[in-house]
Design brief:
- Pfam families: AMP-binding.
- It is found in: Peroxisome.
- One of its GO terms (cellular component) is peroxisome.
- The chain is of the alpha/beta class.
- 26% of the residues lie in helices and 21% in strands.
- It has a 7-stranded mixed β-sheet with strand order 4-3-12-11-13-14-15, with helices on both faces. A 5-stranded antiparallel β-sheet has the order 17-16-18-19-20, with no helix packed on it. The protein has a 4-stranded parallel β-sheet with strand order 6-5-7-8, with helices on one face.
- It is globular and about 60 Å long.
- The relative contact order is 0.11.
């Protein structure tokens, strides 16, 4: 492929787009309807199996309830999920309705919740962790956002108007109709909030960056040669934006997802589950404490899983020798997430031979581009090269191990992202080539 910097147009083949003009809800429903006996998801910590037929039935019932309660296509819905079995049906139901999904982390303060709710102004907020209910309600009242709150936990019925979304009997006889997306290329399916944790709310700015993700942007992340017909397992949960994108793409493909409860992480249970379920692709996004526990267990037991084809670590890097000893046949990849860099959490692939913007950087982030001959371009200069990011508030997972990760930083402490592209005059970065992608691992050991 070749690229013209003046016209910003590629010449060469396009990535295949597999779903025509369907939106994510339509594609998920069609796959589940056509494959009722496919094992879609296993909640490993609960030994609960979701076949497509069961998942579809639950998601439609929830979608019916959300519609009756007033949720309409295009309205924002905030989800605060904490790795419960109801999380996936809720996520799919929102896609069935055509609502714009915004998944909010479950570990923020009332003030941070207030700022997010004030920014996105959701029609509804659904919570699957009762301990967070009062915090979110307080945040909504302070923000003066008149959202409807629903908590998937009957013990809070005295505090909230509450019904079990899977059992509430919908009035009427009309069959629920899955929302049909009119323009998947431009219609927003998700709102992602970058910099929503750590020091992201510090500084003079509002600390929030809202990234709109269209239906087609999500569905273009599916690669037939990468994850199709494989079993994937993840130790991250739905408070992680990347996991939400990955889940939505998995729901419309012959993939079995195995979810491990990261809040009660056990290296022994997790690894035995990988072997028991013939997992081929493994995604690990662990806290620092769990990462150390995981490495220690691997070293102590010399636990070997030969069936894994790909292992992806996020944030803190694992010891390469340990990883190859325990996963001898797997391609080991280490990924960073754009959320950690203070920019967009999602990067769109090249579409229609044009490079798409990944979004502007936030105010406290410094950026520059280094060309192959070593020339440095500032954001107001149009030049092609690798994107470098600098910030006082970024990448704790990398900075905690400065010697191990020294090659990822320049001498003036800019992070080498592995993303190749250019800035336009407005300061937006356009992706040309991905050496190491936030969505799929390209930087492999």
């Amino acid at each position: 492929m070749s690229y013209n910097a003046e016209t910003r147009v590629w010449s060469g083949p396009n990535d295949p787009y597999l779903y025509g003009n369907q939106g994510i809800g339509e594609a998920i429903f069609e796959f589940m309807n056509d494959n009722p006996d496919h094992m879609m998801e296993i909640r490993d910590n609960e030994d609960e199996v979701f076949l497509c037929e069961k998942m579809n039935s639950m998601a439609i019932r929830i979608a019916e309830n959300l519609s009756v309660k007033g949720l309409k296509p295009g309205q924002n819905i905030a989800l605060v999920l904490k790795n419960h079995s109801i999380d996936s049906p809720i996520l799919i139901a929102c896609a069935f309705v055509g609502a714009v999904i915004c998944v909010i982390p479950h570990d923020l303060t009332v003030e941070k919740y207030r700022r997010i709710l004030n920014e996105i102004k959701p029609k509804m907020v659904i919570i699957t962790e009762k301990s967070l209910a009062k915090q979110l309600l307080s945040a909504s009242i302070v923000a003066n956002v008149p959202s409807q709150f629903y908590i998937q936990d009957n013990s809070l019925s005295t505090c909230f108007e509450l019904r079990d979304l899977t059992e509430f009997q919908v009035q009427g006889t009309e069959e629920f109709k899955i929302y049909k997306c009119a323009n998947p290329e431009n219609e927003v399916a998700m709102i992602l909030i970058s910099n929503h944790n750590g020091n992201s709310f510090n500084g003079n700015g509002n600390g929030l960056k809202i990234v709109n993700v269209t239906h087609k942007m999500i569905m273009r992340g599916i690669k037939q040669d990468d994850l199709f017909s494989n079993t994937i397992m993840s130790a991250s949960n739905f408070s992680h934006p990347l996991e939400v994108v990955r889940a939505l793409t998995a729901y419309m493909t012959p993939i079995t997802r195995i979810i491990s409860n990261s809040n009660e992480f056990s290296a022994a249970i997790f690894l035995h589950s990988i072997r028991k379920n013939d997992v081929t692709n493994l995604f690990l996004d662990l806290t620092e404490q769990n990462s150390l526990h995981f490495i220690e267990y691997l070293q102590k037991t010399e636990f070997v899983v030969r069936g894994l084809e790909k292992v992806t670590f996020f944030g803190n890097e694992f010891n390469e020798k340990v990883s190859k000893l325990n996963f001898p046949n797997a391609k080991i990849s280490f990924e960073f997430i754009m959320e950690e860099l203070g920019g967009s959490v999602f990067i769109q692939k090249i579409q229609n031979n044009r490079s798409e913007s990944m979004g502007k950087l936030t105010s406290h982030i410094k950026a520059k581009i280094i060309s192959e001959n070593g020339y440095s371009y500032d954001p107001d200069e149009v030049g092609i090269g690798e994107l470098l990011i600098g910030s006082n508030f970024m990448l704790p997972g990398y900075l905690n191990f400065p010697l191990k990760n020294a090659k990822k930083f320049t001498e003036d402490r800019f992070f080498r992202t592995g993303l190749y592209g250019y800035f336009d005059n407005a300061g937006e970065f356009y992706l040309i080539e991905t050496k190491k992608s936030p969505i799929k691992g390209r930087y492999s050991k």
